[in-house]
Design a protein that fits this description.
By secondary structure, this protein is of the alpha/beta class. It is about 35% helix and about 20% strand.
């Protein structure tokens, strides 16, 4: 059976528009204090809405001005959580702490600064360029505090913060860590403001969730919680706030921006969270709702809650976004902090902005559910829930409790197999000097993808869709009503939709914030590719997107394996996807990564179907290889200001971990699929470590010589090619290894099925 470690919350950190710390924010929320005011970060004169919920601290006050604002917000909240948890970051505990942070827009403000410089004919500031991608945030926060555990950036738009908490408890219960800083951070940006303005989704005045529902008010901030195994917390004498029980993750498979009007996806995720927590619906005392303030979101969530909790007279519900604004990737984490405080203190924050007439309407439509309006409620509660719903149809819910509970997460330990592979690789383009994939529309027509749907997809999403449907075909899987809820998706990416982000930002720099494209904006979120894959295939299960450097694709395999281990799904699609466009050429050239004697860019998407033994046996599935072990490790030694540093210590530890998990010795492994990419220092470092660890006879295959450096897609390709070699009898066993930012390494051991 799985390791069913009890998980607890031992520290809280928070910064948003209503306060600079947890107590200040919670007191403000209880008193109905709003942080919404006229936006000051940029000029909104030509926009129909002028409101925002901005943090009052400057970049210098947040982290000395050394980091982009999103990271700086995360650093501040993480620092408070560390102090609150009583952790000495100079002690051995620091080396164990992982950092899992969610974000939606990442370094969007740095994208703006970079392209404003370019528009003036100047050379773009390299510091802004390095801060653009979401893949650097968790590593930067970890390095700032000397945290040496696993890092990951979860980029599922507005569900990212909640998903980070979900991943933390999964990693603890799976024996991959004991303590994590988990949460989310996002900053106010012209990109997000322009995008929601283009969608006509901004409220003309302060947002009013479950009330007037005429739009959202964008906010910024960060929430970080210390999630820890109970045993670890007791051992170090930590104060425990509460237990974190179970979580749920699901997909709507409906629309890239709008929720299902019937609330099916939301009801599925709430049901999963309650079930995984070992509870009944009647046990839940309070829900901090997603409650954005848009008509479609509020209507579907209202319907979901009334349907699932029908007849429950003791359920209280509120949305704190009426005061904090919608903080995007940070929203779920901020609301989780409020939810924990409500549980511990027995004080439930309200939704503000109701007139007397509004209250009459609310009473008529709310039924037996107690929607908290204007004033807080004092009530002793035992089980509380926080919900987050996002673009791409991604849904996440998490449950906190005063006391431990017998969970419903037991799942017989089963072997995991690779049962399908779908590849889209680049071919060398003489004109560009890059490896470019063929995305001819006829390729999609062969799979029944309609032109009208395909036109909505950016290049990254097209790459992902093609590899995903090829993997399903190779595995012999047809998605239908019987299996749509037991199949999930995990996507890894280094750059995400950077081309769409850059082009959108350049457009509003040129034309004005009020001229953003409603067609283009949905494709600027990192999880759009996973959302489109879900919509096209009908997959309604677990859905997460990870941005964690070049090794994101192989880390998606680890996350997918974890989702199966806990019985969330029977089958997972694990992908690595990155594109190569003129924008990528420009960015990597300015970073100094490409050119003579350096790496050659590529693009692609590789999806592998990971399946548990009983499911594969029932289907009579082909088995490429068995996953015998997987591990992610990192190292904080050396120059922590350099997030591209290498670490022999971390790489060797990753290799040792997978061999130990697989019950093997170094001498049992004859082949490594490595990450060398043409940069001499990286290639030499890698070969030296392998020779030292395995000896001179180890064979190292470097696929980037044939397909270019396609970042996340390359790491997934390493894994897939190793699985093929084993399936076709060329190898008995082997390890695929890749690296990410801040000396992070991920390794997966495969053996014959």
């Amino acid at each position: 059976m799985l390791n069913e470690k009890r998980c607890v919350i031992t520290g809280l950190g928070l910064v948003c528009a209503i306060g600079d710390n947890v107590d200040e924010c919670f007191d403000a929320a209880l008193n109905g204090k709003s942080g919404i005011a006229d936006a000051k970060s940029f000029d909104t004169t030509e926009c129909y809405s002028h409101k925002g919920a901005e943090v009052r601290l400057s970049d210098e006050e947040l982290a000395g001005g050394k980091y982009d604002r999103t990271t700086a917000l995360g650093i501040k909240a993480a620092g408070e959580a560390i102090k609150d948890a009583g952790i000495d970051m100079d002690s051995e505990v620091a080396s164990e702490i992982g950092v899992l942070l969610g974000s939606c827009i990442a370094g969007a403000a740095c994208v703006e600064k970079y392209y404003k410089q370019k528009a003036k004919g100047e050379k773009g500031d390299i510091s802004n360029l390095k801060a653009m991608p979401a893949s650097v945030i968790a590593g930067n926060v970890a390095d700032y505090y000397n945290a040496g555990g696993i890092t990951a950036n979860i980029v599922n738009a507005c569900a990212a913060g909640t998903l980070s908490l979900s991943l933390a408890i999964d990693l603890i219960r799976g024996g991959k860590g004991e303590i994590f800083l988990a949460g989310g951070c996002d900053s106010f940006s012209s990109l997000a403001y322009s995008g929601f303005h283009a969608l006509r989704a901004l409220a003309p005045s302060d947002c009013s969730p479950f009330n007037h529902s005429d739009g959202i008010t964008l906010g910024e901030g960060a929430g970080v919680l210390v999630v820890e195994s109970y045993e670890h917390a007791v051992k170090r004498g930590a104060r425990i706030y509460c237990d974190v029980l179970g979580s749920g993750v699901s997909s709507d498979a409906y629309h890239i921006t709008a929720p299902r009007p019937d609330g099916e996806g939301q009801m599925n995720v709430i049901t999963r969270a309650v079930k995984n927590s070992g509870l009944k619906f009647s046990d839940i005392d309070y829900v901090n709702a997603h409650g954005t303030g848009t008509a479609k979101n509020d209507e579907s969530e209202f319907l979901s809650l009334k349907t699932l909790f029908e007849g429950s007279k003791d359920l209280y519900v509120s949305s704190t976004k009426s005061m904090t604004g919608h903080c995007l990737g940070a929203a779920g984490a901020i609301e989780a902090v409020f939810t924990v405080k409500a549980l511990v203190e027995g004080k439930l924050p309200p939704t503000t902005g109701y007139s007397e007439e509004d209250l009459k309407v609310l009473e008529e439509k709310s039924g037996s559910i107690n929607f908290i309006a204007n004033k807080p409620v004092t009530k002793d509660v035992n089980y509380v829930m926080s919900n987050s719903f996002a673009f791409g149809g991604n849904n996440a819910s998490i449950v906190f409790a005063k006391d431990p509970n017998v969970l419903n997460l037991t799942c017989p330990k089963q072997s995991l197999y690779v049962t399908g592979i779908g590849m889209v690789n680049g071919e060398y383009n003489e004109e560009k000097g890059d490896y470019i994939a063929n995305l001819d529309t006829d390729l999609f027509k062969a799979y029944g993808v309609k032109s009208a749907f395909l036109r909505k997809l950016d290049r990254l999403s097209q790459l992902q869709l093609l590899s995903g449907i090829r993997a399903l075909e190779d595995a012999g899987i047809t998605v239908n009503e019987e299996n749509e809820g037991v199949i999930g998706i995990c996507i890894g990416t280094n750059d995400g939709p950077m081309t769409e982000i850059a082009n959108f930002q350049k457009g509003i720099i040129r034309d004005g914030i009020e001229k953003g494209s409603a067609f283009a904006f949905p494709n600027t979120v990192y999880n759009a590719a996973g959302g489109y894959l879900s919509i096209a295939t009908g997959i309604k299960g677990y859905n997460v997107t990870i941005a964690n450097g070049f090794q994101s694709g192989i880390q998606s395999v680890c996350a997918a394996a974890g989702a199966i281990m806990f019985g969330y799904e029977s089958i997972m699609l694990a992908s690595g996807t990155d594109e190569c466009t003129d924008i990528d050429d420009e960015i990597f050239s300015d970073l100094g990564f490409t050119g003579e004697g350096k790496m050659t860019l590529g693009e692609g998407s590789v999806t592998c179907v990971i399946e548990k033994d009983s499911s594969a046996a029932e289907r009579g599935a082909k088995r490429y290889a068995k996953i015998a072990g997987f591990s992610s490790t990192r190292d904080t030694s050396g120059d922590r200001s350099d997030n591209s540093r290498m670490s022999e210590k971390a790489l060797i530890r990753a290799l040792e971990n997978v061999l130990e998990e697989g019950g093997m010795k170094a001498s049992d492994v004859k082949c490594i699929y490595g990450f060398g990419n043409g940069i001499e220092s990286i290639d030499k470092f890698e070969m030296d470590v392998y020779k030292k660890f395995f000896g001179d006879d180890i064979e190292v295959k470097l696929i980037k010589k044939e397909y270019g450096e396609a970042r996340a897609a390359s790491s997934s390709l390493q894994f897939a090619m190793l699985a093929k070699d084993i399936h076709e009898g060329r190898l008995e066993t082997g390890i695929a290894v890749s690296y990410g930012t801040s000396a992070l390494y991920t390794a997966v051991l495969l053996t014959r099925a």
